[in-house]
Amino acid sequence: MSNVQVAVVTGSNKGIGFAIVRALCKQFPGDVYLTARDPGRGQEAVAKLQEEGLHALFHQLDIDDLQSIRALRDFLKQKYGGLNVLVNNAGIAFKVHDTTPFAVQAEVTLKTNFFGTRNVCTELLPLVKPYGEVVNVSSMVSSSALGGCSRELQEKFRSNTITEDELVDLMTKFVEDTKKSVHEKEGWPNTAYGVSKIGVTVLSRIQARMLNEKRKGDHILLNACCPGWVRTDMAGPKATKSPDEGAETPVYLALLPSDADGPHGQFLSNKTVRTW
Ligand code: NAP
């Protein structure tokens, strides 16, 4: 088994994830895994970094596919005995003018952004080694969507005692409510992406709390962040930040020094803790 440190970035064949891998290749003292659901796109991205003189390794990972997540888990366990840095970056968003029915958008968006990310965490968090870092890429849209929730939902999402099961039930309820066209009546905002990212931010707060309770001595730091408005296929060419600039906050959180005792369980943008 290798003693080398290892970092894994989900959804990193393009966009912000690719830029995170590029930065980690330059700054992380260990093996950096670029992962992609499509091996062809993943290997192409690794080759692009190679042309820049950077060496990333590749492993397939589709966060919608539990078998794929478990294959990566088993690989990391066997080759490295765990992992040191996990960046949950993979995500999707329907375009504003997409005419796909809202209930379908809700189901598909929540499936990847919330349930897929959660499945990766369920399988990989137990493998994270002491002094490791976990970064969940959320969005400022999670904050604005929270503001659009009913007072009752806001209280639940801001609660310091909400459990992961309760959060899963709420995310499931959102999808069900959209199918019955009652989501607005039930206090939800009209944004599937926003609700999925509320899920990612709240999940991060819960996971950080669980680490405090169950692995206090391990000094693992886990946070959610917004990369900013970044020029990628998701956000388009008018966005203000380059992918490398968008990678800055996730990379800052992935490389927190081992003697840092925070941030932990926070939501950050521009390397600054934001009020949730
Ligand atoms: P992007 O250019 O569309 O890239 C998204 C990446 O996620 C791609 O590599 C995509 O792979 C991958 N992905 C999607 N579904 C996946 C799955 N099931 N399994 C594994 N990988 C999957 O988007 P981006 O702008 O870089 O976004 C990266 C993250 O930042 C997302 O979580 C997004 O919500 C968040 N974010 C972005 C912005 C922004 O302004 N761009 C703002 C706030 C937050 P394929 O190539 O195979 O599709």
Automatic annotation (TrEMBL):
Keywords: Cytoplasm, NADP, Oxidoreductase, Phosphoprotein. This is carbonyl reductase (NADPH). Pfam families: adh_short (PF00106). It is an enzyme of class 1 (oxidoreductase). One of its GO terms (molecular function) is carbonyl reductase (NADPH) activity. One of its GO terms (cellular component) is cytoplasm. InterPro entries: CBR1-like, NAD(P)-bd_dom_sf, Sc_DH/Rdtase_CS, SDR_fam. Its main location: cytoplasm. It comes from Glaucidium brasilianum. The lineage of its organism: Eukaryota, Metazoa, Chordata, Craniata, Vertebrata.
